[in-house]
Every structure is written in structure tokens, then in C-alpha cells.
Amino acid sequence: MPFIKTDFPGLLIFEPAVFGDERGYFFESYNSGTFSKEGIDIRFVQDNQARSVFGVVRGLHFQNNPFAQTKLIRALEGTILDVVVDLRAGSPSEGKVFSIELSARNKKQLLVPRGFAHGYSVISETAEVFYKCDNFYNKQAEGGLAYNDAALNIDWKVPADKMILSQKDLLYPGFASCAHHFVFES
């Protein structure tokens, strides 16, 4: 099975089959048929790519309804610590943090459903990140969560004095004050 369930409902790790030989490797990074066989029917409409240097922390971001997004995230180059927080009221994992290293080497991907705040830190010299979204970005629907909320206690695996953040990411509220309307649906 290429999908590994987490303790967070709907949050899945995707490990594609990689075929390698003396020439290199090949793998299907996304195949709608593979996802459909697991009951995952998502129509992705937007691809995003970002390149960053060591210490960059991006997030924690989300899009409010009706522009909420499911994301499929992977590292094309380098290594990131991918971090999500379940914002869905009534979820068994509401307010909890999940993190995983995604790298060009391990080729793992994280499928993040709507209702999660998402971010990552770059823990290699550089990293190039690619992610698919099932809804278009909408600036008015932007939301965020403080990367350093003491209640979440996220270890970004980057020393505080080496972190590089956008001005916007420095201003987001903590979990207790975060405005959103996500509700868990089992």
C-alpha cells in the first residue's frame, strides 16, 4: 500500500513505488487511479513550487472556506520538516501537531486535507518544495497560525537565531485566538 494512515483523520503519508537501476530512478509522483483505488478522489487545480534556503520557516497557513485547500506536498530537492495542525472543531486530533521529514531522497509526500494549518522549515542547505492544491488560492481567504505558539510547542529543527520568516508569518495569532470555521466531518 502506498498510503500510510496517521492518527489524524484524513492525513495520509504517500510513499510511491520507486523503480531504480544503474540509469537512475522512475516513480509516479501522482496518479489519480492510484488515489481513487484508496477512495481518495481529489481534483487538483493548482500546482505551487517554492525554493528556500536553510532556516526558512513558512507557515502556518490555511485558506478559509469556501476556499479551503487539500494539499499534496513533496520535496523535489533537499529536506523539509513539514508541519500541520488540525484546526477542525470536533476532530480527535484537534489542536494537535503532526510533523514529518519530506526529502528528495525519501520521496515521501503528505496529503493534507482541508481544515489543517500547514507549514514547513528548510533543514537542508536549500530545498525546493512542490505541492498540488484542490482549490485556487484566494488572498481574502488567507489565514494563519503562529509558528511559535507555546501551546503547540513545535520543534522546527532550526535554531531560533537561524529562522527566516516573512513579516506576515510573524503576526499570526496563537491557536486559542485563531479565526476559522473548520468542523470535523467523519
Provide a descriptive summary of the structure in words.
This protein has 186 residues and is mainly beta. Helices cover 3% and strands 39% of the residues. The chain is built from one helix and 13 strands; from the N terminus they run ββββαβββββββββ. A six-stranded antiparallel β-sheet has the order 1-2-10-7-12-5, with no helix packed on it.
Alpha plus pi helix count: 1
Q: What are the secondary-structure elements, in order, as H or E?
A: EEEEHEEEEEEEEE
- Which spans have pLDDT < 50 for at least 5 consecutive residues? none
Whole-angstrom Rg: 16 Å
Largest sheet, described in full? Answer: 6 strands, antiparallel
**By CATH's scheme, which homologous superfamily applies?**
Jelly Rolls
Helix content: under 10%
User: Structural class per helix/strand content?
Assistant: mainly beta
Q: Write down the overall mean pLDDT.
A: 97
* Overall spatial form: globular
Task: Report how far apart the termini are.
Answer: 22 Å
CATH topology: Jelly Rolls
Strand order of the largest sheet: 1-2-10-7-12-5
Number of domains: 1
CATH domain class: Mainly Beta
